[in-house]
Design a protein that fits this description.
The structure holds two protein chains of two kinds. In chain A, 36% of the residues lie in helices and 22% in strands. In chain A, helix 4 crosses helix 5 and helix 5 packs across helix 7. In chain B, strand 9 and strand 10 form a beta hairpin. Chain B has eleven helices and 13 strands. The radius of gyration of chain B is 21 Å and the shape is globular. The chains are: A alpha/beta, B alpha/beta. At the A-B interface, helix 8, helix 9, helix 10 and helix 11 of A face helix 7, helix 8, helix 10 and helix 11 of B. The complex binds adenosine-5'-triphosphate (ATP) (2 copies) and magnesium ion (MG) (2 copies).
């Protein structure tokens, strides 16, 4: 994917802090990333690394207080989503950017029928009348592979299995033909056989509708199968990003390297002992002034304590990592070109 | 209480059934049963880890809980270390409790937030043994050492720990009475990937050191492949296939196992491009109303006419491998008594 075409979504310097009774939690620290039209960006990272909060911040979905968006710009369709009015933002959320939340049970409203929850955004954003919205709802349920969609419109969320609820969530997110779909752990709660169905569905929808997707998951296998590009988060920061093959073949940040080694394989050789990442992730009570991974990093040295490394070019086009070891490697090889 | 012979299984389960009654109507009359576990047999050898996999709701936890008699089972027998467990009375059950323990999925929910780590770990000691306060403390420290918890944390409360550390507290408590057999029910599912490996390595070290036997319940097939010696695959209340780890992952025989393994994505973009998962169609049946014939027939890509009419028998493939599927009925495989194959028979 060439970096030259201008991205459909461009996030710069995003910074989100929670004010809690125990002090501030710096959940998202100067996050920069972009998404190209039609591309699937996979987001991985430790639990608590800020994946969900980053994406919720983009669309100002976090209640304030306790959340506080301290800084940043989110450019989408020529406007900064952090500056526009609430009304304009509602238009974007409902119809241009679809969002699938981490927990399908809490995000579908148990007191409304599936049919109502599908039709509501269609009527509100696309101004459809009742009949049109109903026809489109049936079409959407068909699209996500729910059998007997006409009858199922009358059902309530609890009458659907977990996998079907997740499909309904996808259908709702797709209702207004969004340009961007943000899916937060859309298959984590599901069985692998159902996950396989959803992934096939998403691949198929991408072919048909050509939307850009941000897919958050902790499952590196899922990422390997569907992503064009990968962004790795740690302690509220992007520590590495790049084309999917590069990230898996030549990870440059020690966290990414360690992460790839901790997961056992289902095929191929079986390791006698699992590799571990010792220690715990940091508690983010202040903005980082040093490398957040240093206490768990086998390569840490003086510099990692003194300053927080920035993302720097790491070989292949579009591959960047935030680690001082890259500088060291570059200074040993002075002819390296970077952008 | 006869001790088992050295060669015999430590855990022997035969035709275990656990039905949960469904009550409905004004008078709460009994209208049916959820057949959560519907006739399951297996053995686990001493020191062995049997992995138990299968989709959500297929009855894995119910198997684990039934064999430890956390439920009053509907039918069948369970023998652990030579003692009958399934139908024994409350008092003799209490004396058997120490040898069988459980580690739960959610370390948060299974630890009392108002108790210190020391008192959580000591709870089973206080209940079953009469230790002096010095012996008691020594044992608490020993257990904390075993699971890699700093002794200085003894006076702290669960909320002051990370998920991985809380799971260590749960493991220490499970080890307190020197159990022989531990049911690990999704012990790493609630943990971050980077912490999962720490806990799995700990469970393996403890198994070697203390000669433990595990039933390891998980939906994470790659982790099961790592930790289990043998694997049993469940579908809707029944075991459909059991085999040694290597045989199962190299060549799954039951169509459900085949679909399950083919669906696991692998952290390698190059091989992911060539992987074509078997995508299952059809409805997932409910354990309150299982289909006639084979339970998997509604989704099975290889289902034949007979599969919708008759429950399949269990076929033996040697090396302790057993498969319950009509595809193999006129194969070289022999019909077997479903013991879920201990390799010794
Ligand atoms: N309402 C809140 N108040 C205080 N802190 C919060 C709140 N919501 C999130 N956080 C903190 O923000 C950080 C980032 O959380 P986030 O939910 O984005 O993590 P994540 O990467 O999505 O993790 P997971 O993989 O577990 O979903 C965490 O440290 C979390 O504890
Ligand atoms: N106490 C109970 N009362 C009634 N039904 C129950 C009870 N416990 C479990 N069930 C039902 O029995 C079936 C098997 O449940 P079980 O918890 O054993 O599944 P599982 O394989 O452990 O699933 P998971 O992977 O989601 O933990 C399910 O249909 C469940 O709803
Ligand atoms: Mg999240
Ligand atoms: Mg369970």
């Amino acid at each position: 994917m060439p970096d030259t075409a201008s991205p459909i979504l461009d996030v710069k310097g995003l910074k989100t802090v929670f004010r809690t009774r125990g002090g501030e939690v710096h959940a998202v620290n100067e996050v920069d990333f972009h998404l190209h039209a039609g591309e699937l960006l996979g987001v991985v990272g430790e639990s608590g690394s800020g994946k969900s909060v980053t994406m919720m911040s983009l669309l100002r979905l976090l209640p304030s207080p306790p959340a506080e968006m301290r800084d940043g710009a989110v450019m989408f369709g020529g406007q900064n989503l952090l500056d526009i009015s609430d009304e304009e933002l509602r238009q974007v959320r409902g119809s241009k950017i679809g969002f699938i939340f981490q927990d399908p049970m809490t995000s579908l409203n148990p007191v409304y029928t599936i049919g109502y929850q599908l039709a509501e955004p269609l009527r509100a954003h696309l101004g459809m009348n009742k009949t049109e919205a109903r026809a489109r709802s049936i079409e959407l349920l068909q699209l996500v592979g729910i059998p007997d969609p006409e009858r199922r419109l009358k059902d309530y969320p609890h009458q659907f299995s977990g996998g079907m609820r997740q499909r309904v969530m996808i259908a709702i997110a797709l209702a207004c033909d969004p340009k961007v779909l943000i899916a937060d752990e859309p298959t984590t709660a599901l069985d692998v056989t159902i996950q396989a169905q959803i992934i096939e569905l998403v691949k198929d929808l991408r072919r048909k509708l050509g939307m850009a997707i941000i897919w958050i998951t902790h499952d590196l296998g899922v990422i390997a199968g569907i992503a064009d590009r990968v962004m790795v988060m740690y302690a509220g920061q992007v520590v590495e990003e790049g084309p999917v093959d590069e990230i898996f073949k030549d990870p440059r940040h020690p966290y990414t390297q360690a992460l790839l080694k901790t997961v056992p394989a289902v095929r191929g050789a079986r390791a006698e002992k699992l590799q571990v990442i010792e220690g715990q992730p940091p508690i983010m009570m202040a903005a980082p002034s040093a490398c957040s991974f240093r206490n768990r990093c086998a390569h840490a040295y003086g510099r990692c304590e003194d300053a927080n490394p920035e993302l720097t070019a790491a070989g292949a086009p579009g591959h960047r990592a935030a680690c001082f070891l890259l500088d060291e490697a570059a200074s040993k090889q002075p002819e390296t070109v970077d952008g | 209480m006869a001790e088992t012979t050295a060669a015999g299984p430590l855990v022997k389960v035969r035709d275990l059934k656990m039905y949960f009654p469904i009550h409905a109507g004004l008078f709460k009359s009994h209208v049916g049963d959820i057949k959560a576990v519907d006739g399951i047999s297996f053995d686990i050898a001493p020191g062995e880890t049997l992995g138990l996999v299968g989709e959500s709701g297929c009855g894995k936890s119910t198997v684990g809980r039934s064999i430890l008699r956390l439920y009053d089972v509907t039918d069948g027998t369970v023998e652990i270390n030579g003692s009958e467990i399934a139908h024994v009375d409350r008092d003799s059950l209490r004396s058997k409790r120490p040898m069988m323990q459980m580690i739960f999925q959610d370390p948060q929910a299974s630890l009392n937030p108002r108790m210190t780590v020391a008192s959580i770990i000591a709870e089973p000691l206080d209940e079953h043994l009469e230790l002096s306060s010095k012996e008691r403390l020594a044992r608490i420290y020993e257990l904390m050492d075993w699971v890699g918890l700093n002794r200085e944390f003894a006076k702290r409360y669960p909320h002051e720990f990370s998920g991985g550390q809380r799971q260590r507290i749960g493991i220490a408590r499970a080890l307190a009475l020197n159990p022989k057999f531990i049911v690990c029910d999704e012990p790493i599912a609630a943990l971050d990937v980077s912490i999962q490996a720490q806990v799995v390595n700990l469970l393996e070290e403890l198994q070697d050191r203390l000669d433990l036997t595990y039933l390891f319940i998980s939906h994470d097939l790659s982790m099961v492949r790592h930790i289990a010696d043998r694997v049993a695959v469940m579908y809707l209340g029944r075991i459909v296939e059991v085999a040694s780890r290597d045989a199962l992952f190299a060549e799954p025989l039951h169509p459900y196992t085949q679909a399950l393994l083919s669906a696991v994505p692998e952290p390698d973009p190059a091989s992911e491009r060539n992987r074509t998962p078997i995508v299952l169609q059809g409805d997932v049946p409910s354990p309150a109303n299982p289909p006639t014939g084979c339970n998997f027939s509604t989704r099975c890509p290889k289902a034949m006419e007979i599969c919708r009419q008759m429950e399949p028998g269990v076929f033996e493939f040697g090396g302790g491998r057993q498969v319950a599927c009509h595809l193999y009925s006129d194969d070289m495989a022999e019909p077997a008594e479903p013991t879920a194959g201990s390799e010794s028979n």
